[in-house]
Amino acid sequence: MKYTRTRLLSAMALSFSSLGAAAQAPDNAPSFTPTENTLLSPAPQLASGPLFPGVLGQALADFDNDGDLDLFVTNSEGLPNYLYLNDGNGHFHDVATQAGVALPDSYAVSVGIGDFNNDGRLDILVGRQTGTSGKPAHPVLLQNMGKNANQVPVFADVSDASGLSTLAASTRALGFAVADYNQDGALDMYIAAFDLTNSGDANLPLGTSDPNVLLINKGNRHGIPVFSDRTESAGVAGLKVAGRTPETSDSFWYPHTWSVYASDVDANGLMDIIVMNESPGGVEVYLNQGDGRFSLLEDETLLLAGGWMGIASTDFDGNGTLDYFITNLGAEMAKFGVPPQINIGAAVNPGGQPYHFLLSGTTSRGLVDIADSINVTASQTLPPASLGLKPGLQAYGFGWGATFFDADNDGYKDLYWVGAHWAGMPLNGIGRFLHNIEGSSFADITDSANLFNIPAGDAVDFSSANNGYSVLSGDIDNDGDSDLVVVNGSDSPAPNATAGIRIFRNINGNNNRQVSVSLHNDSENHFGIGGRVELYVASSDVMASWMDEDDADAHTDDLIQAIIANYESRQLEEIVTTTSSFSAAQPIAVFGLPAKTAFVALKVTWPDGYISYHLVNPHESAVTLRRSHKRHDSRDGKRTDQLRRERENHAEHQTSDSRRPHARQQHEARRIRVAMHRIV
Hints:
Layout: H1 5-10, E1 32-36, E2 40-41, E3 58-61, E4 70-73, E5 82-86, E6 92-94, H2 96-99, E7 107-114, E8 123-130, E9 140-147, E10 153-157, H3 159-162, E11 173-179, E12 188-193, E13 213-221, E14 224-229, H4 231-234, E15 241-242, E16 252-253, E17 257-263, E18 272-277, E19 283-288, E20 294-296, E21 311-314, E22 323-326, E23 357-362, E24 366-369, E25 375-377, E26 402-405, E27 414-417, E28 432-437, E29 441-444, E30 468-474, E31 483-488, E32 500-506, E33 513-521, E34 532-538, H5 544-548, H6 556-565, E35 569-574, E36 578-579, E37 583-585, E38 589-593, E39 599-605, E40 611-616, E41 622-627, H7 641-648, H8 662-679
Parallel strand pairs: 2-6, 3-37, 25-29, 33-41
Antiparallel strand pairs: 1-32, 3-4, 4-5, 5-6, 7-8, 8-9, 9-10, 11-12, 12-13, 13-14, 15-16, 17-18, 18-19, 19-20, 21-22, 22-23, 23-24, 26-27, 27-28, 28-29, 30-31, 31-32, 33-38, 34-35, 34-39, 36-37, 39-40
């Protein structure tokens, strides 16, 4: 008999005791108000699918281009997906049917977004486990056609014309990694293949699976992007693993993939692929070679078997390189007496790793896991059940989706993730919020921040928790701080837990501010996916000479370069869309700034390597940098000499409108210095 992962783990239940030291909430600590579907009209009727109860995805993005974040949520077969448009104040109304994205006959589980035909509108990818009217369950590409007379964005299913419908019937997408992998200006996609009807493979010595898929965008045909399968030539089908008994040790198969992520891991200007696999698979990192091929990063730690499920990325410690948090089965799983011959046992036996990863990016050693060395001050309320047995983040429990965001806009990204639990099991995925302490450590203040994923009014206890599968962060009510959107599944044993959308509204009351940065290129890769945005802050003391100077020849560019050369702190974000687990987010970089921060500059590395700068006004909250560049090289990804010269012109300053003439630069520099002087 085959068992789902949920039932398998339930059969191995053990009980644990809790212990730990208390984490005190800092002054002006972030706090949230949870809402149970009350901001959504109508309230969603969500049902998890029958194959793996709970898996549902979401996208938090501006689908109607009105400047606020809308919400798309997948649903099970027989029920429609939801597309909630935001009224600008964090209240939503559903237009899925009018928009053509309801797909009620499909079992939809995951979401990807991107502007695949470069028309300035975000399109939607939907991963499914069953197709419409008995058709194959290939991914669906819903192309954004713009708004109708009622200001509702209308989508057209272009799966046939784009080539997605020709994928193998078994390509059931559980995740997408959207990026311009060959640097031709058109967005490509990498698909995580997981047929959930085979989730019972966790209880077998040998599994059945299909390779992941890389689709390269060949450009538009009659306005519709057309894709070509380059999986084999690129070398990214996946790393096969052997069976786990003597009889199956000579048989190899692709492990199931939960999530995939696009990022420039080695910071060479090319987008790489991170693959999170189910046990006995590991975390595979494919480095882009720039010639259409990828090479597997040979790292024994990364390839340790585990139930790798979700991901979030930022530069949490401000050292100028990206870091990656990857969720896993959690510390409690290490105590299960799992037979080594079954696939799930690979995570807790030699060669396995049930603990979360916190991969620190370095320029010299690649990715280094620091989960056991980063200090986490535990909460007094519901500390991890394995606290004291494992150090740092390794002590924490089960996780699905995750997000880095600056909850209190203090300039340091905090971490939140959701998880799940099942009857008789100590896998306590209750939702965890770790407050970043100046980039050096974390404090678990989930309780004081009101971020335990527990139904309103229920006891604060592990057994009361909802089962959260995906989480995204964003400022849904446009009040200058980031909120959280959690999608809960229907498989929690808690008596009051239900499938639904839970929004945690940030009620942070401090005087810090938030700055969002968007990239727009009118000719290619419209939203700048794969670009990097660096924010530099210089102290008033260091920049005092600039405040008092009245040099007629001083330019805004000079001030920007002075800030970067004398920075006191810096932040780094990468423009991505697909993230967390099963989900996608607006391609935007968001930064927090402490109150009275005056001297702030942006350095933007666009996806093609071009560099531009921007001086952030003391009262500026949203920055949009625009380009109208169209490359002249061929579509094989090679840059021309003209493009190289353009990249090397680092001193050129792009504003949100156009390049300023010399006289206007002088005036702007003087005006900003006066404004900064008044603030500090």
